[in-house]
Design goal:
heterodimer; A: mainly alpha; 5 helices; 73% helix; 0% strand; elongated; B: alpha+beta; eight-stranded mixed sheet; globular; disordered N terminus
């Protein structure tokens, strides 16, 4: 039993995933509030948009950590979400003036990073999509939380 | 399902019925933190609210309703500027440079009337300018029947020729048949045992009329016949004195001592609060925290526009509670005995259009029966009758297509909302979402909420009766369970009838709540009490922001706008507080100090466009009446002031920011006149259009905005109740796709005059002048919100139009104008089993230009059906096509134009395919051809027309700005105007006769039949008028009979018809009078003024006429017949 880099990665991922779970819950609550008229879409988008990039970065960060630790299975499990994020993020990074149809949902032209546009967010399709996305991510993060816990113990015990 | 429950549970906990105050306060914050928020102070108690907007009158007499004339508080009393002054002084010290140009009239005031100059030059024009040499007859390519006929790809001609006459008839016949129900002469009213109230005089007030107040009082002497079988129950002795107590329109000073004891139901506590409310109102009128208990039982303190209108959610637990109560929640109960005598069929007021106030029988009965079986059957048979479009050539009716009538009992139908205001794409609502998706037709509403109405009942009442859980306004389609309770038709909650509502001001009788105007008219306007105000009603504020760069001066539009403003300065909607201001901009921003007392207007130039500030915040928006001289002075001089400018840059973004800062304390309307691509400061744009790609068949790019500056600014404006209207007068590409956002999200409107030039494009000049006149003088509502409610089970999916969506069912509209239309896509979330009728209600809360807070409520009721055939039978093709067009615009922006075009074609194919397989019998399915239900017979034609419309066409060279503008129009034009833009009406007018004509105001108006939009209908011997909504084209055939040329056009021969004729001469001949009567009749049907263009064969304008011939083949688009073949091929696949 030794404290390897892999074990460290799992511990880190465990903590970060806990944070991501909070992000996802926040996301779900925010859209729920939108749907039930409690919040103005402008404010809601202003609070949600700054959270998009950090979430993506955190996730990308521990993916890189797993890569370094050669945890291929864990990395593989995370690839779909990473791909989904990366696919959707070029425009976030490049910012203005890029219109791309390649994205799953064309990011509105915005001068700030983020995904949500107050003028279209109330569209029933987009709202439903965002809510579903929130639930799926929550489920994914929860499962991966326990997986990392298992992985951490396994690595600690086996090495 | 689980999720939904979770949502509503949360809701339930957080928002209990009675006490919304906490939530409201929470709600307030998000919205108002947006702007710099100087208007927040107006919500503070610092404003002596009672003085300012005590709308509730105290005078006891019905005839004197002081509430109607809003107390004219002098502008000083609204002293928001106070704080702002301080702030602005601070700003002022930061001024880096404030160069003052020589004051306006530093050069000796030119008293020359600029209009005179202009008109002189216009008059001199035709001789001096001629772009197109008159072509000699030999060069003229004849456009005649002969030249059109070869259609190479056309299959057997025989099929395609005119059908036998009887085939064209069935089309118009059923329509006429349907009308019969509604065309019964109005004399029918008096037949019943009911008082025949002179409705139009009592209630029908033209809406702009400010003194709408006295409508109730006039009926005083009417005999009131009691209609209840058991009068004793209705008229307890107690209620007698209350005839005096409940004078209409005044504050109920005291409720009757015990409120009609015999009728009180167990719901005691509620009733008590209800009763206390008026009392409290009376006592605590001048205390500050006073809330009058409107709509019964809640005293809510609205803090947000959102909550003002009263956004309520349907509360699930509550509903379930009601549902479990048995028959109440599910089906429509049979009538209490007292009501059943009522439905004497003679009582109906059969006129559907206006006066809806006659006594109607009670609906419970009607709903229960869904009766009118005859009517129903006729309808269905007609709407569903299969029609082979390939064989029936003449499907286009010769009279304008009318909206189908919902398949309701006629008593219910006649109370229904006017289809011009409110219509649904499916007049039979499918029962389930699966049925809806099977039918492949869009479900949605088309709304024209602020339409100018000739008759609009206005109610002043301190109690606006609304459902307690969903906040629906009481409407003609609610059920009265008994005298004291009504059941909401949207959420099925049983509510109490407030005491005040028991008094009927029309008949001056007590105990007839179902005869109140609220329950008799589907469109009604309330004067809202102070709970519906977030802040005191603001004055009307108009700001004009004009481009004065070199390009703008060249186009010469300043003359037109200044002259129009000068002419209409007195007719601008508003009261004595109306404020007006001007900003001009090129590479700098110019403000105009118009403060009363100055000898001449002062111009202030702010050249710091990176950080715009307002030089003197007080004097830039001035009271129109007090500073009228200065304003007129400025308007006379403005066109000359920049005549020698060399500045070519345009700093539109900073100018808009300045306007935003200037107007944010009050809100209002900003009108922007822009002539080129903005090139300086924030919001600068780059040219994105490649002219060589214009006719690119593959795809059109750059339909979405390039930057989000305008959108963000529009959202800020929306938060401060500012609407920005955009007038584009550009010659070059100006990226309307980006600029339009400023109007789209601030509920403004967009006008476009491409290639505007005061000399070279007289057509646009005339159009601009006419549009401006309408624009400046039309009604306007400020600080508006619109909420759309629908029966539980239906949900709003998407909105289309110009607005900002504030929550799932609420639109924020800083301004509402009478020409704005909205579309709403609906979805069915819960199956509508057990429901026979669904209702939709649109409530528009706005501040009128007179400073009154008003609520206009439209309610529409539609039947629910369970079979696919019925869904098709009730389809409203015009409304559906307009909704599809709006959806296609969204699609072309979010995806691509070709996608949108495909989706349009697929809509036809899918719906026809379903109709074929699911509705038609086996035998009918074997028939070849394109089989369509009668109700959708025009569907392929309209879709084809849409594909050839500027917004969606490909292949033809279309400027990007034109395309984007056309898309904007599709989104916000109401159905009745949009349908003409999609599919114009064509008339032959050289042989107008009085046959079949109609008479309006002693004028005989001929009614020529509508012709198909095909060149084969044109004839060189005739003259044809095309009514394309916003433009009239008069095409004169080369061999047109000289009688018409002489008598109508005043020309001796075809060659002598002037090239740019835009008006028919007023000749004294019968032909001329007939033609002009017809034209003006067409014009009267719409509020704007379509300009007439006389088109001779050889003029360049010919293309704009011919491109509307949608049934013909063009280089890049199919003809109607080819399109049908394509549909057939796809349907049969």
């Amino acid at each position: 039993m030794a404290f390897t880099f892999a074990a460290f990665c799992y511990m880190l991922a465990l903590l970060l995933t806990a944070a991501l779970i909070f992000f996802a819950i926040w996301h779900i609550i925010a859209f729920d509030e939108l749907k039930t008229d409690y919040k103005n879409p402008i404010d809601q988008c202003n609070t949600l948009n700054p959270l998009v990039l950090p979430e993506y970065l955190i996730h990308a960060f521990f993916c890189v950590m797993f890569l370094c630790a050669s945890e291929w299975l864990t990395l593989g499990l995370n690839m779909p979400l990473l791909g989904y994020h990366i696919w959707s993020s070029p425009q976030i990074f490049l910012g203005v003036l890029i219109v791309s149809v390649s994205r799953y949902m064309t990011r509105p032209v915005m001068s700030v990073p983020g995904l949500y546009d107050p003028t279209t967010i109330m569209n029933a399709d987009i709202l439903a999509y965002c809510q579903k996305e929130g639930w799926c991510k929550l489920a994914f993060y929860l499962l991966s939380f326990f997986y990392y816990l298992y992985g951490m113990i396994y690595v600690l015990v086996s090495s | 399902m689980k999720e939904a429950n979770y949502v509503t549970n949360m809701h339930w906990q957080r928002k209990p019925v009675g006490g919304q105050d906490e939530n409201n306060i929470q709600l307030l914050e998000p919205h108002n933190t947006k702007g710099p928020g100087p208007n927040q102070l107006s919500q503070d108690s610092s404003v002596p609210t009672d003085q300012v907007y005590s709308v509730v009158p105290q005078a006891p007499h019905a005839q004197q309703l002081p509430a109607k004339n809003f107390p004219q508080v002098p502008a000083e009393q609204y002293n928001y500027d106070y704080q702002q002054n301080l702030q602005m002084i601070g700003n002022f010290q930061n001024v880096r440079q404030t160069i003052s140009r020589p004051p306006l009239s530093g050069n000796p005031l030119q008293k020359v009337n600029s209009a005179g100059v202009q008109s002189a030059s216009l008059a001199g024009y035709p001789g001096s300018y001629s772009r197109m040499p008159l072509s000699s007859p030999s060069s003229f390519t004849p456009l005649s029947v002969d030249s059109v006929q070869p259609r190479p790809s056309m299959p057997p001609q025989s099929k395609w020729q005119f059908g036998p006459p009887q085939q064209s008839h069935p089309v118009s016949q059923p329509l006429a048949g349907m009308q019969v129900n509604h065309a019964v002469p109005t004399e029918g009213i008096g037949q019943g045992n009911l008082p025949s109230v002179p409705i139009s005089t009592t209630y029908g007030m033209a809406c702009p009329n400010p003194a709408i107040g006295n409508q109730y009082g006039n009926v005083a002497g009417r005999p009131t016949t009691q209609n209840y079988a058991n009068q004793g129950l209705v008229h307890p002795p107690v209620s007698q004195p209350s005839h005096q107590m409940y004078q209409p329109g005044r504050t109920p000073l005291r409720p009757p001592p015990s409120g009609g004891p015999p009728l009180i139901r167990p719901a005691q506590p509620l009733l008590n609060t209800n009763h206390d409310a008026p009392l409290a109102q009376n006592i605590s009128r001048d205390t500050e925290g006073f809330n009058s208990g409107s709509s019964g039982d809640q005293s809510e303190a609205p803090d947000n526009y959102d909550t003002l209108e009263g956004g309520g959610k349907i509360m699930q637990p509550l509903l379930q509670d009601f549902k479990t109560r048995g028959p109440l929640g599910h089906s429509y109960p049979s009538l209490p005995p007292g009501y059943q005598n009522l439905a004497a069929p003679g009582n109906q007021l059969p006129d559907p259009a206006g006066s809806q106030f006659s006594q109607a029988p009670h609906f419970n009965q009607l709903m229960a029966g869904m009766g009118g079986l005859n009517l129903q059957q006729n309808h269905q048979a007609e709407g569903i009758r299969p029609l082979n479009l390939l064989q029936d050539r003449n499907i286009l009716p010769s009279t304008p297509v009318k909206a189908p009538h919902p398949n309701l009992h006629k008593d219910l139908q006649k109370l229904n909302c006017n289809p011009d205001v409110f219509r649904c794409t499916l007049t039979n609502i499918p029962q389930t979402q699966s049925l809806l998706s099977k039918a492949k037709l869009p479900l949605g509403l088309q709304l024209h909420p602020f339409r100018d109405l000739s008759q609009l009942p206005v109610v002043t009442s301190s109690t606006i009766v609304r459902c307690r859980s969903c906040r629906t306004y009481i409407n003609p389609f609610v059920n009265f369970l008994d005298q004291r309770r009504w059941k909401c038709n949207l959420c099925y909650r049983v509510n109490d009838v407030p005491e005040e509502f028991m008094y009927n001001p029309v008949t001056r009788s007590y105990g007839e709540p179902h005869k109140r105007p609220e329950v008799q008219s589907a469109t009604i306007e309330f004067i809202a009490p102070s709970e519906y105000m977030l802040r005191p009603p603001q004055p009307a504020v108009y700001l004009y922001i004009m481009d004065v760069s070199h390009n703008a001066i060249e186009s010469g539009y300043l003359n037109t706008i200044c002259q129009s403003l000068l002419d209409n300065l007195d007719t601008l909607p508003g009261d004595s507080r109306t404020r007006i201001g001007f900003i001009t901009f090129d590479s700098t921003i110019h403000f105009y100090n118009l403060q009363e007392g100055l000898s001449q207007p002062q111009m202030m130039v702010v050249s710091d466009i990176e950080d715009v500030f307002i030089p003197t915040p007080d004097n830039l928006l001035v009271n129109l009446n007090e500073s009228k001289e200065l304003i007129q002075d400025l308007l006379r001089n403005l066109p000359q002031m920049f005549i020698n400018t060399l500045e070519t840059q345009s700093a539109l973004g900073p100018a808009l920011q300045a306007a935003y800062k200037l107007m944010s304390p009050t809100g209002g309307r900003a009108s922007v006149f822009q002539t080129q691509l903005p090139s300086l400061g924030v919001g600068a744009l780059k040219s994105r259009e490649d002219p060589n790609q214009r006719s690119n068949v593959k795809d059109v790019q750059h339909l979405s905005p390039a930057i989000d500056f305008y959108k963000k600014l529009a959202l800020d404006c929306s938060g401060q109740q500012i609407a920005v209207d955009l007038f584009m007068l550009n010659g070059q590409y100006s990226d309307l796709a980006s600029l339009a956002c400023i109007s789209k999200f601030s509920a403004g409107c967009i006008y476009c005059y491409p290639s505007y030039h005061h000399k070279h494009n007289l057509l646009q000049v005339e159009k601009f002048q006419k549009d401006l006149k309408r624009y400046l003088t039309r009604k306007i509502g400020f600080e508006a919100v619109m909420r759309i409610r629908c029966t539980k089970g239906l949900a709003i999916h998407t909105f289309h139009g110009n607005f900002f969506v504030r929550s799932t069912d609420l639109l924020s509209l800083p301004n509402i104008n009478p020409d704005a239309g909205f579309a709403v896509q609906m979805s069915i979330e819960e199956n509508l089993v057990d429901v026979q009728l669904v209702s939709f209600q649109a409530a528009l809360l706005y501040t009128s230009s007179k400073g009154e807070r008003r609520i206009r409520v439209h309610t529409m009721c539609l039947p629910v059906v369970s079979s696919l055939a019925d869904v098709y039978a009730g389809a409203d093709v015009q409304s559906a096509i307009c909704l599809l067009a709006s959806m296609a615009v969204d699609r072309s922006i979010s995806s691509s134009l070709s996608d949108a075009r495909d989706a349009l074609v697929n809509a036809v194919i899918d719906s026809f395919a379903t109709y074929r397989t699911a509705v038609l019998s086996q035998q009918q399915q074997q028939q070849p051809g394109v089989i369509a239900p009668f109700s959708l017979r025009l569907f392929p034609l309209y879709v084809l027309a849409l594909l050839k419309q500027k917004a969606f066409r490909t292949g033809t060279s279309t400027r990007l700005d034109d395309r984007v503008f056309s898309m904007c129009e599709v989104k916000y034009q109401p159905v009745s105007y949009l349908i003409l833009m999609i599919h114009p009406n064509l008339y032959r007018i050289d042989n107008l006769s009085d046959e079949g004509s109609i008479n309006i105001n002693d004028k005989t108006i001929p009614q020529p039949p509508i012709l198909q939009l095909s060149v084969e209908k044109l004839n060189r011997d005739g003259a044809f008028l095309m009514d394309a909504g916003s433009a009239f084209f008069l095409w004169i055939g080369k061999n047109c009979c000289s009688l018409f040329l002489n008598q109508v056009l005043g020309a001796s021969s075809y060659a002598s018809i002037p090239q740019n004729m835009t008006q028919l001469p007023e000749l004294e001949t019968a032909e001329s009078e007939r033609t002009r009567a017809f034209l003006s009749w067409l014009r009267d049907q719409r509020p704007f003024y379509p300009v007439l263009q006389v088109i001779k064969d050889e003029t360049p304008l010919k293309t704009s006429f011919l491109q509307n011939m949608v049934e013909d083949r063009t280089e890049s688009a199919l003809s109607y017949y080819e399109f049908l073949l394509h549909v057939q091929q796809q349907v049969n696949k």
